[in-house]
Amino acid sequence: MKKYFYVLIAVLVFAVIACYIVTLKSGDTVVSNTKTKTAITRIVDRKESGKLKKSLSKTKFSGTAVLIKNNKIVDSYVSGSATDVDKNMLTTTYEIDSLQKVLTAGLVMNQVNKGKLKLTDRVNKFIPDLPGSKYITIRELLDMNSGLSMKKMKFSGNNLSSAELLDVVIDNVRFDANTKKSGKWSYQPVNFVILSEILEEITGKSYKQLFDETYIKKLKLKQTEFAYDNDIKTNRAYGYVVKGNGDRIKQNPNGATVYSELGTGQIYMSITDYYKVISFLLNGKILGKNSAAKLYLPGKTKYRAGLYTSRKPFYRLANGYGYGFEDHVRISQDGKKAIVVFSNEQRKGRNNLKKKIDQLSKDYLNR
């Protein structure tokens, strides 16, 4: 019996080792994501290892960063504190702010695929009271050349329904017919609030329900949740504003302000969950290749459905800022190669983090 017992133990030990480390023909090493529970596989790539730390450590970085090659993490760098007591980890979740817009665009295209919406539909078909709605199309909302603008509003209290938010938008949004006619681009988050309201109108479901169904459940995301969720299930980071003297001020927006970010900045995600979603959107695994190309392929405008375009070298990008968070994604059009950086610190009077990421992207995404 002892003989069989030792044989069994040996087999189990071998199996565990085999699961954690596998040597590839290329010389890279696959690292199992069983312990870290990341949404994508990590490998140790000798050519890329250490690049993120070398670049970002100079910015006093607090957050999580990854380099992606062939849909796998080839380098990562984690630094700083998520909360007063917890350190940041690869699985820490951060508020993604404006990086949510590209995901909202995916929800819109999903309804186009289902025949409930057309990119050429006029907004007055859904929200007739919205200023300029009879002149604006869904495509123009997605690309922010609608002629709409709205100043940042202040909200009080802990609740704000979609209906209440829509009333605020209708009362405060401005439509400039000349701007619309010229096709001039203007970054206005209200465009994506309106798109989210339309999604709720045509489906009879909340934005949260649509997001859960399309992304969280379908892709089996484990480190994604809404900022207003009461039952926090992820390793969520606090957002901090860092002043010039080094003071780190924790941000705590009220509930109504969080709800007002409908479709534009109210999601917490780990860096690997976010990469999985955006790569699947770009490569067509969620929407189909034709629909993904129609939605996201860059045109003449510099902004397309939540993403900007770098021409030299060519890649797609987005940035997110707010409530003490700073987030960046730089990704190839096929989604296979990327740099994703989430930070839970916004530093006043400097933007060294973005500069470092842009420098790194020009080199890494040009190869």
Notable traits:
alpha+beta; seven-stranded antiparallel β-sheet; three-stranded antiparallel β-sheet; 18 strands; 34% helix; 20% strand; globular
Q: What's a quick, concise take on this entry?
A:
This protein has helices spanning 2-20, 51-56, 101-113, 138-143, 162-172, 177-182, 190-203, 207-217, 255-260, 271-282, 289-296, 352-364, and strands spanning 21-23, 29-31, 42-44, 63-69, 72-79, 93-95, 148-149, 174-175, 224-226, 240-242, 248-250, 267-270, 303-304, 307-310, 315-322, 325-331, 338-343, 345-347. The chain is α+β, with helices and mostly antiparallel strands.
Q: Could you characterize what this model shows?
A:
By secondary structure, the chain is α+β, with helices and mostly antiparallel strands. The chain has helices at 2-20, 51-56, 101-113, 138-143, 162-172, 177-182, 190-203, 207-217, 255-260, 271-282, 289-296, 352-364; strands spanning 21-23, 29-31, 42-44, 63-69, 72-79, 93-95, 148-149, 174-175, 224-226, 240-242, 248-250, 267-270, 303-304, 307-310, 315-322, 325-331, 338-343, 345-347. The strands form five sheets. The chain has a seven-stranded antiparallel sheet with strand order 5-4-17-16-15-14-13, with helices on both faces. The chain has a three-stranded antiparallel sheet with strand order 1-2-3. Strands 6-12-9 form a three-stranded antiparallel sheet. Helix 3 packs parallel to helix 7 and helix 5 crosses helix 7 (190-203). The chain is globular and about 55 Å long. The protein starts with a helix and ends with a helix.
